[in-house]
Every structure is written in C-alpha cells, then in structure tokens.
Amino acid sequence: MQQYYAHPQNAFWKIMRDAFAIDGDYVTRCQQLVEHRIALWDVLHSSVRPGSMDADIRLSSAGANDFATFLHDHTQIRLMLFNGKTAQQLFARFVATQSIADGIQTRGLPSTSPAYAAMPFSDKLEAWRTALTEQQEGRGGES
C-alpha cells in the first residue's frame, strides 16, 4: 500500500490515536504526526525480505537510509525511537555511529507489529506514550 503500518492489525496508528488523537485518512494522520513533531522513516531503504517478517530480511541485501544527511538537515532532532528490536538492531549494524550527532538519544520500543503478541496492547501503549510524551516535553530519556 506504500504506507507506514498499513496492516490493519498493526497497533502503531491505534497508539497514535490513543496518545495524541491522531486520526483520519493516511495523509491526514501523517500531517498530524508532523504537527506533533514526529517523523517516520525506515532504517533500511532497501532489502530482500521474502515474507512479511523482519526476521526474514536478508542482511546481505540490506541498505540503510542516509541518516547522516537526514540528521544534518534536521538538527532539532534529539530522540530517535525504534519500533521493535529488529529496527534498533538494524540501525546499530548498518548506520555509522558518526551519523548520530551529540545530544541525540536512541531508544527501542515494543514492536507494534501483530507478530509481537507477547505484550498486551495496553503495555505497548504505555511504553510508546511515555517515550512520545518525553519527546514532546523535550526530555529524551535514556538511550
């Protein structure tokens, strides 16, 4: 669908709705994220992934997005949140630490994927709400 978190069972948009009243069609939701100073971007710009599971990503085919340029162009960023362990691990593996400017903290959050069913929605919501509230208030928390 060429949309972030398009799978109807993915909890990302429900979390955004419950935390910030972000709702509407996809374009409207994305605009509302920007209003809340939230950006979405994949760690990888390309990879071969047979199937839909992140565990199926063929690491030999993975290419990371250009975070150095993105962060250079967006100097106000102080916190980067990762949707699940795999995103955080891919970032650590493929994105040079030089592209993370001083003062930018990183934090992994529970995956909103329906494949991560070990944590109930209420716990995911609380973890995301806490991290996003800290972002909104300018407190990055610990990495």
Kindly state the mean pLDDT as a whole number?
A: 88
Task: Supply the CATH class.
Answer: Alpha Beta
Q: Strand-and-helix sequence, N→C?
A: HHEEHEHEH
Separation of termini?
A: 32 Å
Query: How many domains, in number, for the residues?
Result: 1
Judging by the overall fold, what is the CATH architecture?
3-Layer(aba) Sandwich
Regarding quaternary structure, how should these chains be classified? Answer: single chain
Total helix count?
5
Could you tell me the strand content as a percent range? 15-25%
Adjacency order of strands in the biggest sheet: 1-2
Class from secondary-structure proportions: alpha+beta
CATH superfamily: Uracil-DNA glycosylase-like domain
What is the CATH fold-level name? Answer: Uracil-DNA Glycosylase, subunit E
* Relative helix content: 25-40%
Shape descriptor? globular
Please outline the major beta sheet. Answer: 2 strands, antiparallel
Model regions low in confidence, pLDDT < 50 over at least 5 residues = none
Q: How many β-strand stretches?
A: 4
Rg, Å, rounded = 15 Å
